[in-house]
Amino acid sequence: MLRFGELARNDFRLVIFETQTMQERNQSRAAFIDAAKFLLAKSADLARRAAALLRAKPSGRLLARRSESPHRRPRRN
Questions:
Q1: Are 26 and 59 in contact (CB under 8 A)?
Q2: Confidence category of residue 2, pLDDT binned at 50, 70, 90
Q3: Is 7 helix (H, G, I), strand (E, B) or coil?
Q4: Three-state DSSP class for 74?
Q5: Shortest CA distance to 33 belongs to which of 42, 24, 41, 22?
């Protein structure tokens, strides 16, 4: 079955797949789309962007450590 899909995250960080129909201007009714597009809000992918920042440059590591809560930071010996 051909579908248009959209991914969304709920409060528990689970991904929900919702199917939707899409109507083109030249169609009399909605049709299922065969090339699915997975859309995510950029703000929903904070973990991937933070990891990319840490890998990209050393100054990103320093910024990430400063923004962490001191209670969540591991102790150094």
A1: no
A2: very low
A3: strand
A4: coil
A5: 22
**Size of the chain, expressed as the number of residues it contains:** 77
**Distances, alpha carbon 34 to alpha carbons 5, 6, 37, in Å:** 10, 13, 9
What are the residue ranges spanned by the domains of the chain? 4-67
Backbone dihedral region of 53: left (phi > 0), alpha (psi from -120 to 50 degrees) or beta? alpha
Residue 68's contacts (CB-CB under 8 Å, 6 or more residues apart) are: none
Residue 4's identity, in one-letter code, is: F
pLDDT digits (tens, 9 = 90+) for 6-52: 455 545 555 555 665 565 566 666 555 555 555 555 555 666 666 77
Closest CA to 6 of 46, 45, 37, 41: 37
Structure tokens at 50: 């933070």
